[in-house]
Amino acid sequence: RAGTELLAVDRLSVSYSGGSIVALEDVGLTVHEGEIVALLGVNGAGKTTLLRAISGLLGMHGGTVKGGSIRYAGRDITGAPSWKRVAAGISISLEGRRIFADLSVADNLRAGGYTRPRAQTARTMEEIYGLFPVLGKKRELAAGLLSGGEQQMLAVGRALMQGPRLLLLDEPSLGLAPLIVAQIMQMVTQINERGCSVLLIEQNVSTALPVADYAYVLESRRVAHHGPAAALMADDRLRDLYLGSA
Ligand code: ATP
Question: Is the Electron transport keyword given for this protein (predicted)?
Answer without folding.
Answer: no
